[in-house]
Every structure is written in C-alpha cells, then in structure tokens.
Amino acid sequence: MILKALALNTFKEAIRSKILYLFFIFGLFMVLGSRVISLLVIDDPVKIIKDFGLGSIHFFSILIVIILGIDLVSKEIEKKTIYNILSKPIRRWEFLLGKILGMLLTIAIVLLVMFIIFIILLWIRTGTLHLEYTGVVYMILLECLILTSFALLFSTVASQLFSTLFTLGIFIAGHSTEGLKLLKNFVQGKGIGAAFADFLYYLLPNLNNFNIKNDIVHGVTITVGVYFEATIYSIVYSALILLLSVYAFSRRNFY
Question: Where are the domains of the chain?
C-alpha cells in the first residue's frame, strides 16, 4: 500500500507539471508533423511517417525522463518536504522505489498516447493497423527505466543542474558503447587502453540493445527472445542502480 501511494503521488505530481505538458504537446506535434513532412517528400511517405514518428516518440520520452527524473528526490529536499515524508513509517528504499514506479507509470502513459496517435496516422495513410511497432515502444519504455534509475541516483546526490548533465551523459554514453569496441581495436586489443575500454563497455548501460526501430521499419522480424533478454537486462541493471541510490540516500542525514 505504501509503494502504491508513493507511486501514485509521484505520478500525480508529474501530471501536474507544466514541463510534462510542454514536452508532451511537442511530442504529439512532432508525431503529427511526420504526416505533414510525408506529403512534402518524393520518397516513400509511409517510411517517412514511420521513421519520423518513432524517432519523435523516442526523443521526447527520453527528454521527459531527464527533465522530470532529476526532480524525483532533489525537489523534495529543496522544498524540505523530505523531513515530513521520512518522519512517517516509510523506509527509504520504499520511498525511492515508489518514486521510480510513479515515474515509470508517467512515461508509460505518455508513450501510450503518442503511440496511439502514431498508429492512427499510419492507419489513415495505409488502411492497416501496424501493431508490430508496439515492440519499438516497449523497448523505449525499457530504456526509460534505466535512465530513470540513473536520474533517481543523481537526484539523491547532486543538484538539479549536475543531475541533468549526468543523466544526459549516461544517455549519450549508452548509445556510444559500440565506439568503445572501435577504441579497443584502435589500441590493438591489449594494454591499459584496451582494458579500460572493456571496463567502460561492461559498466555503462548498452542502450543500443533497445534500438530496434530500423529493423522493424525495414520488416526485420524481432524474436520473443530479443524482448525477453532486453527486459531482463533493463530490470537487473535498473535494480543495481536503485541499490546504489538506496545506499547513497541512506547515507544522507535529514534529521
């Protein structure tokens, strides 16, 4: 019951946020804009709608995670409401888990609405419901789970500015892990440089695991195993980051 109450409270706070509505409106605008752009190009307009629409959904969902995620704990600390919350019979891990569940619920609903509009656009254009793109949105949600866990971690130990920069850095680094393989090859696969590249490759989240947009758009079949492995990876990685958040949060004294 405590987790449910914390998650719903976090969800309600996010829904009331003007920033959420701002990016939500822009996200819908970009998805709808894909329809307009498709009318102005010579190439396959349906492919334009798919690429632009899915790209917009991904971009704005990540942006919402970064903007709202940094406030998960830091806002409570700045407003000093954290004192009132922790004075109640609530464990600190419950507080953090409730925050991340509420944020995940927010992102899931935003993704669902944008995806419905995207599907409607494709249906109007092709006369077919392309539900195969549900997998793309599911993968985006898994990616958002990892980024939310990092945003929560940074929110417990740093200011809003640094939390934003660090979370954005994780997103960029997570999509650049393939470059670490190239670095290892550049240093001929041995020595300190290669070991450091390997260390970063396995330490950083490999967000490319969730990037199946191009495969789906080009008709490549994604097996159930791919979704299963991505789900396990996201949950386990996020759980580890959540444990770090709990440890860091437990070290802070609010009394």
Answer: 2-175+211-250
